[in-house]
Design brief:
2 copies of one chain form a homodimer. With 96 residues, chain A is α+β, with helices and mostly antiparallel strands. Helices cover 42% and strands 20% of the residues of chain A. Chain A has a 4-stranded antiparallel β-sheet, covered by helices on one side. The A-B interface holds A 38-39, 42, 45-46, 49, 52-53, 58-65 and B 38-39, 42, 45-46, 49, 52-53, 58-65.
Chain lengths: 96, 96
């Protein structure tokens, strides 16, 4: 099972994942994205869905037209693990 | 522009859309769905996305693994219109 991130690993997060912030009141990472329209936003979600399924780690996310909010946490570990930072980094690679 | 549903139209909603409920504190319809897994849930979202894009009317929605919550309202009309009931009915057709 994935283990909760250490203090040192957490201190490195702002550098490794500068576009992700800590969720309010939860041990979770959040990323908000804005696209040109629904087509672009949902197209991106489809790419993230394929990543998530391949990594067997899935986001909590919402979409309103061209906006997406992604929250990552590891439910069975009760907080942030390497699964979350791994998925977040893979998502960032889609945006390069 | 789409017009807000009349009182008579609203009274007909429970019969026309029995799986949809009114959102708390908003003039919006809500539907919660549970699937077997993420693959089924996201596959369904992809089908709804195609419908929404074709109808040029898009949901507010969230997904956590096998669960989806869909909220429909017409932002530029400030509440529920025929666009929402039309999309809700089209979504129900996917589930028949």
């Amino acid at each position: 099972m994935a283990t909760i991130l250490t203090k040192a690993e957490r201190q490195a997060l702002p550098e490794i994942l500068p576009h992700w912030t800590m969720a309010a009141g939860r041990d979770a990472l959040v990323r908000k994205l804005v696209f040109a329209d629904f087509s672009e936003a949902f197209g991106f979600m489809a790419r993230v869905a394929l990543l998530a399924e391949a990594m067997n780690h899935h986001p909590e996310w919402s979409n309103v037209y061209n906006r997406i909010e992604i929250t990552l946490t590891t439910h069975d570990a009760g907080g942030l693990t390497g699964k979350d930072t791994g998925l977040a980094r893979a998502i960032e690679q889609l945006l390069v």
